[in-house]
Amino acid sequence: MNGLIVGVGARPGVLAEDVVDLLRAVFDAHGVKPTLMAIPDFRTQEQGLYAAAQELSLSVIGVGASALHAVQAVCPTRSAKAEAATGFASVAEGCALAAAGEGARLMVRRQDGRGVTCAIAGQDDGEQA
């Protein structure tokens, strides 16, 4: 998949405004504008994620457990709390990498907000944001 993808991890009940605040800050700080938000399948019922995606003009894709599991070993940031809660130590980075596809790399490592995390991945073109 071409373009940059923002992977998002969130606590249940996350507010759209908290997601928007984090994503805007990260996009601005790194001079990037992803077109796709990748979220774990176990958070596809979170309306705050969809509302934030709509406000930021991002398409949303769910990342299945097997795809998320397959990239855990290459995710540099790990959270014991996330692993205890979800079974995955790296949700945002994992979603970004899994959705970006084979050969993808992290452009922005996990960033934290209020009840939400994000990371940005894309195909390796030699540039880093």
| Assembly context of the chains | single chain
CATH topology name: Nucleotidyltransferase, domain 5
Class computed from helices, strands and strand pairing: alpha/beta
- CATH homologous superfamily, by name? CobE/GbiG C-terminal domain
Percent range for β-strand residues: 25-35%
Distance between the termini: 18 Å
Major sheet size, sense and barrel closure: 5 strands, mixed
Computed Rg: 13 Å
**H/E element order:** EHEHEHHHEE
Mean pLDDT across all residues, rounded? 93
Q: What is the count of DSSP helices, taking H or I runs of 4+ residues? A: 5
Supply the CATH class.
Alpha Beta
Strand line-up in the sheet with most strands: 3-2-1-5-4
Shape: globular
Short description:
The protein has helices at residues 16-30, 47-55, 65-71, 80-86, 92-100; strands spanning 5-10, 36-40, 59-63, 104-112, 116-123.
Can you walk me through this structure?
This protein is α/β, with parallel strands linked by helices and 129 residues long. Helix 2 links the parallel strand 2 and strand 3. Helix 3 packs across helix 5. The radius of gyration is 13 Å and the shape is globular. The chain starts with a strand and ends in a 6-residue tail after the last strand. 41% of the residues are buried. The mean pLDDT is 93.
List keywords for this structure.
globular; 5 helices
Annotate the secondary structure layout.
Layout lengths: L4 E6 L5 H15 L5 E5 L6 H9 L3 E5 L1 H7 L8 H7 L5 H9 L3 E9 L3 E8 L6
Parallel strand pairs: 1-2, 2-3
Antiparallel strand pairs: 1-5, 4-5
